[in-house]
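Worked example 2:
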Amino acid sequence: MPYVVGLTGGIASGKTTVADLFHQHFNIEIVDADIIARQVVEPNTAGLDAIVEKFGSNILLPDGTLDRRQLRERIFSAPHDKQWLNETLHPLIRAEMAHQVAQSQSSYVLLVVPLLVEGGLQSMTDCVLVVDVDKEIQLSRTMERDKVSREQALNIVNSQANRQERLAIADEIIKNNSNTDSLLPQIEALHAKFVASSKNRQQGTL
């Protein structure tokens, strides 16, 4: 089993940018929970079959794929449906995450989980890396990227674990208040540390 670095952070913190830099510069494999969450509800999957059985075939688009907008609207107005959806999909997502991690061939693997804190998924990692950003910068990035109002951006930020909760579980922190150029020196130092930790564990000394 490879050494697993759990990468997390709030919306617009720069998780994708950080993960991409690890991959581009050091060829580190990435397992992305958001991508897997889409994969487990693709046509001919147990996840999509369960959703259709629960909500009916009207939950599908004409091409047979999931109508995500309609599903979001349904669970937004029905907390018990949201709970059912989470209880149905989360085990599938965790199982696929574990499968992809086990298949990794790089010196360590980045497990990118936006809701790592909220989902209590630290147990799937050897080390938690938090991409940290000041709240005001996070809000302005969210407004610019997603074309939403400050109020909407604030609602999204407040719906997630707060900065203190994420930092409380962090083993390592990347500060991303500036531009991408400030990230690479931090990533280079962390890469060396993760490689060493991976080797130590393989040698049975961690």
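The chain has a mean pLDDT of 94. The two ends are 14 Å apart (CA to CA).
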